[in-house]
Amino acid sequence: MSSHTQESKAEKRSTIYTEAMEVFQHAADLIGLDNRVRMELEEPDYEHIFYVTVKLHTRLVPLPKEETAKFTDLGDSELLPDGLEPLLDGSYVFKRRALIGANVQMRDGVLRLKNKGLHKVIPGRPETYKAYRVQHNQARGPYKGGIRYHQDVSLDLFKILAAEMTWKTAIADVPLGGAKGGIKIDPRSLSSEELEALTLRYMYKLKPLVGPNLDIPAPDVGTDASIMGLMLRQYTDGEREHHSLRGVVTGKDTRIGGSEGRVKATGQGLAYTVQEWFLDRGTTPAGSTFILQGFGNVGSNAAEILSGMGSKLLAVNDAGGTIYNPNGIDVADLTEYVYNNPSNLRRTIAGYPKAQVIPKSDFFAIPCDIVLPCALNGEITGPVAETLKCKLVAEGANGPTTPDGDRVLAARGIELIPDIIANAGGVTVSYYEWIQNKRMEHWSELEVNQRLEQAIKSNYRIIRDIARNTPRRTATHNSMRYAIGKVVDMRTAAMVLALKRIEAHYQLEGFSQ
Ligand code: NAD
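Above: the input record for the complex with nicotinamide-adenine-dinucleotide. Below: its predicted structure, written as tokens.
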């Protein structure tokens, strides 16, 4: 370890951020990264924290059980049903004037909704939320990274995620840097109108910090294409040349400048890396088996594409439960059950009739060829890695394997396709969206996927060559600049590629003083 690292480690308390930066520190030591570049990358360029206020509408919140006793005699109130918007947290928001002309029986601010129990009326009021944008690095191009709406975010978390974007954009070899941001809020506790107001206000405050050539947000947990549409409008409202500013956000609906193939891109990229892993062994995914954690955007699309390549899905675990069918699960049928079933509000695989329910503790031990973690971070711990009976872990999620998990996988000879290449399809197609916006073009899904396949597979091959210390120049890729003279694990190899590409910018352009 370099003396620089020892000093900075001693000075800094260990945080989730410093822990997450361990792979960076290790790779930086291995390649003898220029110390000034290292210090530039150790902390973000900018950490913005600000506050957004939104007027919340009046809502009905379920009355806690212990407070219901004194209202047992309260009769039903009949509010106008289309005036209430149900929220996933069990509350209702008054969408319109639901009380007008309605039959209301209220005592101490409590009323009973017919068939829905006792609710407390919480009058509308302004509320303040904490918002963030961390801009980690822009050596290779404008800052780039998603917007997360979630109750458990923090500055340290956004610092980690922003740094990961810097590594990912470098590995994907797109001319962009790294950023991440969002709001500390459970979006399921807001009505659609409140969410719109919050998003517009967030972009109003963010406007001086972002732009198509400066910092380009995208969807992340809790946000989607419709939120990006609102951010686009708020950013471009009143601008004379607003069409030229479309690239200020990516992940938009295809009808307002989004790219074909963006929705599936991360799952598609993941499937391409798995296909390449098989090709390296002279075979294809056909006839293989896989288990999948997370049936959301990444997991469901990766499953659909892999099953199209002939691989069989044996089990799925998501937030609602775990299902298993040793004869295989029909991915299209499961997708229909999860996404096109109005009564499946939480979009979960739980209750799917054509598979058996198993405990989560049995999930990771199912014998298969490939494990695809596509949900949460920190799921494949050391003990979980001990139970795996697979040949390959391909990380669709960000950070699903812990450092202990990594050590166990390596000791047991289970191969790994690390997250920063396995799930780089999303940011790669975001870049394609940004170019199409700049050029006022619209590419077909076929064109997008051809470019994506070539990009993901060639970068994956470079990482594999670094890991094996086999520098090569072939028709499809060139790893001559990147191998470091010794064999390293795949996660380190990916970081080596990122750091060498970023370092080149500092070496060739120098530093501004
Ligand atoms: P999503 O919200 O669409 O789906 C998340 C899935 O995880 C759901 O099926 C949910 O049920 C499941 N899940 C949540 N909590 C769980 C729990 N406790 N146990 C098991 N499963 C649980 O999210 P997504 O967009 O598919 O993202 C999944 C992962 O991939 C995240 O780590 C995300 O950061 C990463 N990722 C996503 C993209 C992208 O383009 N969407 C790109 C890169 C990385």
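Notes for the reader.
The chain has a mean pLDDT of 94.
The first helix runs from residue 3 to 11.
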